[in-house]
Amino acid sequence: MKSYIFPGQGAQFVGMGKDLYESSTVAKGLFEKANDILGFRITDIMFDGTAEDLKQTKVTQPAVFLHSVILAKTLDNFKPDMVAGHSLGELSALVANGTLSFEDGLTLVSKRAMAMQKACEMEPSTMAAVLSLEDVHVEEICEATEGIVVAANYNCPGQLVISGSVPAVEAACEKMKEAGARRALLLPVGGAFHSPLMKPAEEELAAAIEATTFNQPNCPVYQNVSTTAVIDPNEIKKNLIAQLTAPVKWTQSVQNMIADGATEFVEVGPGKVLQGLVKKINRDTVAASA
Prior knowledge:
This protein is an alpha/beta fold. The protein has two domains: 2-120 and 196-289, Malonyl-Coenzyme A Acyl Carrier Protein, domain 2 (3-Layer(aba) Sandwich), CATH 3.40.366; 125-186, Alpha-Beta Plaits, CATH 3.30.70. The protein contains 13 helices and ten strands. Strands 2-1-9-10 form a four-stranded parallel β-sheet, sandwiched between helices. Strands 4-5-3-6 form a four-stranded antiparallel β-sheet. It has a two-stranded antiparallel sheet with strand order 7-8. Helix 5 runs parallel beside helix 6 (89-96). The longest helix has 19 residues, at 102-120. The chain is globular.
């Protein structure tokens, strides 16, 4: 069985999608439609902008989504048995499996990005990668640290990202190193994604999600919050809303897809981060780019 997986924020690069735009009339039409929906020419930033311009959350999230979804729509014989996306990538996955239309997916991504950027401006917050420490130890240290700091991304065994207020994350990083972490380093991100500090963004996005039509999907989606196969549109909505403040359980999602019969993982979108994580989760699994 084939699983298509979709990357999240951080996978972007200048020039992304340009080859698609130039080689496919279908892709060109969708990119131009996206420019109209967003009200600015995101293609100019994606294709020829600076890395700094592309790094803005309000640009990054739609850019990664567009690259992923448009690439999926131009693939031959695109018939996934299951899909999943890492954080933002979950919205790409929901368009790919027919739950959301291209237009509604892009609109939600744009609103998500704006809401998260606004939440990030409320107080200094950040994320940090912790390497070579058991998940349970990371969770215990976060729990024992004063302030807001939580486990945010379960990327693969031995690689967990924490998220929260700057002082709490910095304090937790020091404790992680003392506990034997090989590295605990702050990440160059705009704020504390997948933490309680995203509550204002979650509330804002919830209204938009509730007002959007979610169709019966063509195949199950393994969501970051539930980690299991979901096909009920109402459950998909609920999990998508909860995702902003809940951790991304990528390790568990991949393990469940494999348990349910996934033999091949195809990463659709910029970069190769997810296929690398899949191989670290299960070295016997086939994982490649679309």
